[in-house]
Design brief:
The complex is a heterodimer of chains A (247) and B (184).
Chain A (H helix, E strand, L loop, with lengths): L22 E6 L8 H9 L6 H6 L7 E4 L2 E2 L6 E2 L3 E4 L17 E3 L6 E3 L9 H5 L6 E2 L26 E2 L5 H13 L12 H5 L5 E5 L6 H6 L4 E2 L11 E4 L3
Parallel strand pairs in A: 1-12
Antiparallel strand pairs in A: 1-10, 2-5, 3-4, 6-7, 8-9, 11-12
Chain B lengths: L1 H9 L1 H25 L11 H6 L4 H4 L14 H8 L4 H4 L4 H9 L19 H6 L4 H5 L16 H12 L3 H8 L1 H4 L2
Helix pairs in contact in B: 5-7, 10-11
Classes of the chains: A alpha+beta (247), B mainly alpha (184).
Amino acid sequence: MKPIDLNIIGAKGAIAEEAEGKWGMAIDEDLCTGCQACVAACAMENNISFVGEEDAAYGRTMHWIRIERFWEGEYPDVRTTSFQPMLCQQCGHAPCEPVCPVFATVHSQADELNLQVYNRCVGTRYCGNNCPYQVRAFNWRDYERPEPLNNQLNPDVTVRQRGVMEKCTFCIQRIHQAEDTAKSEGRELQDGEFDPACAQACPADAIVFGRVDDPDSKVSQLSRQKRGVKHLEDLATLPRITYLKES
Amino acid sequence: MVKKIFSWLISPLGWISLLILALIVFSGIIWGINLTQITPEQPIEFPHDRHISFGIQCLYCHQGASRGPVAGLPTQTKCWGCHQQLGITKTSVLLKPLVQAIEKNEPIQWIPVATVPDFVKFNHRPHIAASLNCEACHGDLSKLTIYENPQILNMGWCLDCHVEKAGDDYEKLVKLTDCGTCHY
């Protein structure tokens, strides 16, 4: 029997409730050195604009992944905690999705990812305000790319225009490319065959990407560790990223 | 003032001028839409029909189609491979740009016609792998000289075929109608 597509009638998450997801990530905070290589790699891979000094001061920086750092204790005894790379958690029950008036941010049934459909987006920024992780970035302007930089644009990723919300896609272009290669060779996609830009760039191998629905994959094995924590899990967002941290 | 304009508008002269204005706007819109549908001029008036009548396969020149996302347009050396053996190449006026391109060692600046916008990610390989023929989307080129799109390449047209090909297979339908399959 054909299952009912609850996404159409707006009861999002009802089917996502028990779905465990497809793609996921494990980020080891104990390994992360906070070098920002993932941030740079992500910006290069995904054609992210450089907003410049003035807009950055307004808090309009555009990063799909950022390194968060926190402090513990009062002034003389200040202790820094480990660095925390924060990116879209690709929630199974995403708060950004039901608030979009034009269905520009929708849940992909095929890839179990949160999609941002740029050509649908009208820029209400409602999703960005409703995201508890604050990982969505809005294009406030058409930011200029100075002369040689326009040559490094990735042709596999849309160049976004002004007035469009954007966010981490788990490098869906690489997922599709790897799936396509595997299919053309007539085999199944193997674990660790490809990585998103951030995981590829990470010198400490702190970011591991793979299938979370496959219990033998590296990311599933890491996620089952005792150190694993999912951020803001009490909001029932069903995040797909497990943070590993010795507490 | 406003009353004066209104009373003029409901007079016969006002009606006619309104009608003329509406006609100008309407024809402007039609003209604008028409402009976007005109096939651009190519550097060489390439006769597809003649090449196909010689039995040359599409994939001989557009060889990327079976392997990757982009089918590709042939370089000048690809053309020269056959054309240097033909006497007509040196004498024909239409083939002058090709001879010049070879002499200068510059690629021919073909203008892609079957294109999709930047926010659409099209890949030829799965379409060929799904045993679709070139003419399913590009039309019968054995009757066409310079390439023209047989239909407007829009999303409704893509989806119609995707839904039809998926048939009763629900999993396939989900994959083929997922936003993330083409837009990212």
